[in-house]
Amino acid sequence: MDALHVIVIGAGALGLSSALHLAERGARVTAIEADTIAGGSTGRSIGVVGTQHVTARDVAMRAYGVRRIREWTKRGLEFHAIGYLRLGRSASDLALFERSLDFQREAGVASARILEPAEIRKLVPDISTEGIEGGLFGPDDGFLDPYAFTTLLAEMVRDLGSSVRQGCRLIGAECRGTGYRLCTSSGHMDCDAVVIAAGAWAQRVATLFGHPLPIRPERHEAVTIRVPEPLPYVMPMVMDLVHGGGGTGLNFRHDRPDELIAEIHSASGASTDPDDYDQQIADLSKEHLAQLLLERLPGLAGAGFGRGWAGLYPESPDGRPFVGPFAGEPHLIAAAGAGGYGIQLAPVIGALVADWLIGGEARTIPGADVFRPNAARVGVRR
What we know:
The chain is an alpha+beta fold. It has helices at 13-24, 56-72, 91-106, 117-123, 146-159, 202-208, 283-296, 342-359, 375-378; strands at 5-9, 28-33, 48-49, 79-80, 84-88, 113-115, 134-138, 142-144, 163-166, 170-176, 179-184, 187-191, 193-196, 216-226, 237-239, 250-256, 259-264, 304-315, 322-326, 329-336.
């Protein structure tokens, strides 16, 4: 019996992880990308990977990702384990952190711990803990380079006999019997199954197949922070935001000895045209970011801004990614809507895509049916 031929639309983190997991399970995969590898949201990510979340499902998804990423370091992927610190402002936040430790242990992560304010100041000497009750710290979390990550995924896909085609834009699609014919800028392509992993363009791609997929591309900004002198310690990833709780959304981390990266993780609610948006950070955003940084990092008052940029978070209406088959089409799979967590979630989303196409059900983590693009989540089919 011939191997299942799958076309994955999109060569960012989600698309290439899907391609790799499918190829590992015996499928013949062709990943197509309108631009270049990591040319969309992935390439503008700050590349953070960690398990310091407060729901069982969020922890389980990221724990799978960390395990796979550490496997891929054996293939040359550089992972910087600088640690991840999530700040808590209340007793209820600390209660969530306690539950997170239980969830992490269940998922095989045993190194995380809760820090008191004095311990936070010892870990990050330049930080102010005013208004902070404690923090959830994972010393083994860190960051990677998004381009190196996706380039390695593409290399592993090719090593397994599958292909990645850049500069191949999808123009149209039609269902043919039990498979699909795609019209692309490089000609027609026939396949048995399709994975829509087109990031900020996923809604447009789904429309070509006759399905709604409510992905809202949100513009988000990041900027480098130049410190006057190299810090005598490594700044972990610091996140001032708790799911369902308070926080400013400010986050920052080490990038190199004399430079940090900072952004504000918050929902803007505005949809952006992925083909036409300002890719530079606005002056007003810099002013707001500077104010938050001065409050949280008073010890770095002499730091200044370096380069800034803007990227897109592909957001779903309910904040959960879309992963799984569309109604009535078991061989048309969504892998989109990971928001600002595409790098973290790419490994598990890729595994779930392979679950659906190779095994017919989601098995990698429990409860993954909630990610399916069913009618309740996407609306009535067009």
